[in-house]
Amino acid sequence: MGGALCLLWAEAPALAHTPPQPNFSLQVSPTRLVIPAGTTTTAQRFQLTNKGRSAFDITVEKADFIAGENGALNFQPNAPYAAAAWATVEPANFRMAAGTTRTVTVRVKMPPDPEPGDHQFALIFKVPAAQDASNIRINRGIATPVFVTVPGPVDSSVEIAGLQAQEFVLGGPVPLTARIRSVGTVHRDFRSSSRLHAQAGGSAVAFPDFTVVRGAIREVATQWDPPLMCVCHVTLSADGSARTVRIVVLPLHLLGIGLAVLLAALLLAWFVRRRYRARVLAAAIALNGTDDRRA
Question: What sections of the protein cross the membrane (predicted)?
Fold first, then answer.
């Protein structure tokens, strides 16, 4: 019998309304947890709500992870800056009736003399697949990252590891892809008023909200609407590092249309002039013929 686990990072916003009410719907709050430096034992609480029509069982698991460049949580035992062993969860198994809310408490106790800076793990709120006659069972769940900051020097510095864009385009929008590398001791949030912006053609181009986990590289993308025609330079900078790309915007398709219109206008003018000259010549010939008959 095969098995699979379908996981979501609860960072993504839910739809505002999804009628009719689904059979399965699990909401976890908060969608991520940051435990700041200052205490050696910390208890935090998560609220789980069953917004579906059916009851289900919940299993809460801990897992160390590394962050993929796309922001996904890749679970890996003994990952760098792992902290799953520091945490205890209560309760770890329970059943939720439809429309109910349950509190899960996680306690984090740091070991003696941990390395300063961020350590991280994920809580996985997993709903095991129901027993049926099929050969494939898909477990459902939500993974919530937890960042634990160990007291000590705090450095959230990053560097721009790359900036990519097409060198020649016919027009917009132009995709911009950036790679941001963490070089500090804690994660770095680029959200709300702290969003990352590129300078392009005299305007600021915002990237979507994202987080760079300690020791990781994050790839993010946005789009830029360029002027109709330009040789523009797009620059992305953060914490003293910067990358610049040159983009040539040349609307050849519009130029082709313009040339076609110009050629058509020239042909029309030539045709009108030719007909005009033919009429003038015919009138002159007719006038000369009349004069000859009179003579």
Answer: 250-272
